[in-house]
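Our preliminary data section would be incomplete without showing what the modeling component actually yields. Below, a chain of 118 amino acids is followed by its predicted structure, encoded as tokens that our downstream tools consume directly.
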Amino acid sequence: MDQRQALVAFGALSQETRLHIVRMLVVSGPDGLAAGAIAEKAEVSPSNISFHLKELERSGLITQQRESRSIIYTANYQALGGLIRFLMEDCCSGNPQICAPAAAVAACCAPATKEELQ
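Predicted structure:
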């Protein structure tokens, strides 16, 4: 991730509702959530949630996929990990043990799917 991408991502996350949405989608895992469910959980109107989802998608932090009549949104784990790695790059003046816990989080991949867990 370069600095321009990081600034766009941080700009998208700097709004309370959008930060809440990203955290919701991270928790929901690879199955994601429908736009209506996100609006309901965030207690935001459908038109308002649409605006926030478009901003997050434009930043690359979430993705969407049509499933039948619904649009399902999921966290873009690769982009979120890239953002953490961007922050931690060249960390700690040669003392990697200081930032090892955060680096481990950044190195993780998307959560396993239900099929992979079975």
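The mean pLDDT is 86. Strands lie at 33-34, 62-67, 70-75. Preliminary results of this kind motivate Aim 1 of the renewal.
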